[in-house]
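Table S4 entry, Outer membrane protein beta-barrel domain-containing protein.
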Amino acid sequence: MKRLFTLLIFIVSFHFAASAQDEQITRPQTTAPVAGDAVAKGNWIIGASIANIGHNFKSETFTLDINPRAGYFISDNAAIGAQVQLGFVAYDGGEDFRYGLTPFVRYYFPEGAAPTHRWFGEAVVGFAGSSFEDSEGDAIFDAVYGVSAGYAHFVASNVALEGMLNLIRSNANIDVSNDSSTGLSLSLGLQIYLPGSGRTF
């Protein structure tokens, strides 16, 4: 009986010790209720998105596009800025470097907004170019323009993960297989929202 009582005390003590340790474990932060403060007038946005990364086994083509950006909120929910288009394509027989600069206008919709996320629309107009010169009728350096729809989910006080659906048009030779490019693409990005002078999130 004494052994049974000792075993019971040991089990109860172990249970309470395990419960105390569970309460001390802090889970990683996956959301932050700051979306309204982050998109306020006078704040800044910096970050980058990966628009295309992959390997086509049929054509033996590897593609990587990275678009760093910076912008300024000219009013609540509205930002202007510019992004740099940097791309690389390696294919059987050579490689292609892509480049460009596209100023953008972005608007965060108050409709459907929540403390932890915002929907937004974006328009870009700029130029793009490529080192690829083997296609007839293409332009090595030409205009690029398009529109995007996106979703920003705030994972920290000033950091958001973004997904965007892009419709981009360019006559510049920015694709190995086409003289001009129009189409849909998906991009994922990480954006940092910096408060303007005298502001905090």
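Helices lie at 2-24, 35-38.
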